[in-house]
Specification:
Elements: E1 3-8, H1 14-25, E2 29-31, H2 32-36, E3 37-38, E4 42-43, H3 46-57, E5 62-65, H4 73-79, E6 82-86, H5 90-103, H6 122-127
Parallel strand pairs: 1-5, 1-6, 2-5
Antiparallel strand pairs: 3-4
Length: 128
């Protein structure tokens, strides 16, 4: 396990597992939400996003948590030596999302982009 990709629904525990694995394996963790979102929930432009992922996946070791099934998923899949898919019932993920939101109202979690305070919106809930 030197290049680990963790995917799954929002609230499935991707970031938590990534942090725990990072400590155990002594491998740097990259939270895609923290990289993708700029302050104020502004998305990184697609060409810049692709370049960031291309560089990231060239590293010798990494743990990447996040989905982003856009044009970078294939790059990450091909570079990974281990892929972990967290598959929990929707009700579990929704409970965790609401709990996380309540615990972090008006705060920015360490695995989120700077200036992106915790939020829940209909688009996110529908995705889950």
């Amino acid at each position: 396990m030197r290049r680990v990709m963790i995917i799954g629904s929002g609230g499935s525990g991707k970031s938590t597992l990534a942090r725990q694995l990072g400590k155990i394996l002594n491998i740097e963790v990259f939270h895609l939400d923290a990289i993708h979102w700029k302050p104020g929930w502004v998305e990184t432009p697609l060409d810049e996003w692709k370049a960031i992922i291309d560089e990231l996946t060239k590293k010798e070791t990494w743990i990447i948590d996040g989905n982003y099934g856009d044009c970078t998923m294939e790059t990450r899949i091909q570079a990974a030596d281990t892929i972990i898919f967290l598959d929990f019932p929707r009700v579990v993920c929704l409970f965790r999302i609401i709990k996380r939101w309540l615990q972090n109202i008006n705060k920015v979690r360490p695995d989120m982009g700077k200036g992106c305070a915790e939020k829940i919106d209909w688009k996110f809930l529908k995705w889950i």
